[in-house]
Amino acid sequence: MILTDKLARRTHEVEWSGIRIMFALADEISDVVNLGIGQPDFDTPAFIRDAAKEALDEGFTRYPPAKGFTDLRLAIATKLKTENNISADPHTEIFVAVGAMQAIFNTCLHLLNQGDEVIVIDPGYDYYSQIRLFGGVPVPVTVHESNRFKVDPADIEAAISEKTKLMIINTPSNPTGALFDEDILRAIADMAIAHDIWVLSDEPYEHILFDGHRHVSIGAFEGMRERTISAFTLSKSYAMTGWRVGYAVAPKVIIDEMEKLMEHMVSGVTAMAQRAALAAITAPQDCVKDMVSTYDQRRHVVHEGLNAIEGITCIKPESTFYAFPNISATGMSSWDFAKYLVKEHQVAVVPGSIFGKGGEGFVRFSFAAGMEQLKEGIARIERGVNALKRS
Ligand SMILES: Cc1ncc(COP(=O)(O)O)c(C=O)c1O
């Protein structure tokens, strides 16, 4: 107790992740089908694992450069040019990070002063702790199921104030599976330029797109490079969540700060993981296509299966491996519904309210799980919803 009193005040701005709380509950129960997890169920492709093993034998066992190996940054620059239409100087504008997460954390750390407002999407990925830790004030902009959870730029415009320092945009979006179309991103870019606001574009799901959709990076638009930090990662595209390799593309002034702090913080991303990342990025991208095609097959099954449950509706996600079914007809809060499902029917999903007030009445259902598990999970949810009707 006394020790708790001695902790720095800023620690109180950081909250335990709601997802972890949910999983702790699931861990106490046996035979749970866990459809809450936000990471690919695939193993990292063999050629990537081999690259890491070879790197160890080649002597990549020492401190790496704080902002990443030069050849990796060169490969990232080529990828950014060809896939994202972003021109970045590999020597000054690219930083290899400990996942997209570090790029997000550092962005908040480098940009925010006490009282700066940060626009976030609600429901959206949870950036609240990082924002508050550095004195920022999150300003949620609600997205609606009726608009397929795509943000209406007019709602962003209405949320901008003189204090707005940063907007955080995540498309393809976790947890809704929404994709923000090019015209939406252009409107956001125009507002960022007109009001002189920074944009953090968090793009971990850039490759997980369906129905021929194309990913657009807001940092590619004219006038945006100088005000955009784009965060990418190998976690989702290559099933590499545990390797902790991502990267940030940003103006030199931000990359310099990231590099400077990295020296004081963790001195770089694990050398062999960077070598594996280099192999992943420079190889033919068949492994990514194969995984996305499997997600797509599951997406159809999940969409049909959830909509077949009386009392649940679910729009078809355009991207990511998440469905975001509407459970409001059950009359339960999303936390109560998720707790009920895991305790009584051994199936774990994530309460939508973890992703903001706008997520109330929804749950996040991940289809980064095998087909058998998905079918079993849907059957358990159906049993759970039907039992509610009888009670
Ligand atoms: C929207 C979003 N941003 C960032 C991250 C963090 O990714 P990484 O593993 O690259 O740190 C995740 C992971 O789930 C995510 O969904």
Structure keywords:
single chain, 391 residues, alpha/beta, seven-stranded mixed beta sheet, three-stranded antiparallel beta sheet, 12 strands, globular, binds pyridoxal-5'-phosphate
Short description, anyone?
The protein has 13 helices and twelve strands. The chain is of the alpha/beta class.
Textual characterization of the structure:
- Helices cover 41% and strands 13% of the residues.
- It has 13 helices and twelve strands.
- The chain is α/β, with parallel strands linked by helices.
- The strands form three sheets. A seven-stranded mixed beta sheet has the order 2-8-7-6-5-3-4, sandwiched between helices. The protein has a three-stranded antiparallel beta sheet with strand order 9-12-11.
- The N and C termini lie far apart (43 Å).
- Strand 5 (164-169), helix 8 and strand 6 (198-202) form a beta-alpha-beta unit.
- Helix 3 (46-57) crosses helix 10 (271-282), helix 4 (70-84) runs parallel beside helix 10 (271-282) and helix 12 (334-345) packs across helix 13 (371-390).
- The structure holds pyridoxal-5'-phosphate.
Largest sheet: 7 strands, mixed
Mean pLDDT equals 96
The helix/strand order is: HHEHHEHEHEHEHEEEHHHEHEEEH
Distance between the termini: 43 Å
Poorly predicted runs of 5 or more residues: none
Tally of contiguous helical segments: 13
Write down the Rg.
21 Å
Shape: globular
Bound molecules: pyridoxal-5'-phosphate
- The chain-level structural class is alpha/beta
Order of strands in the sheet with most strands: 2-8-7-6-5-3-4
Q: How many E-type strands?
A: 12
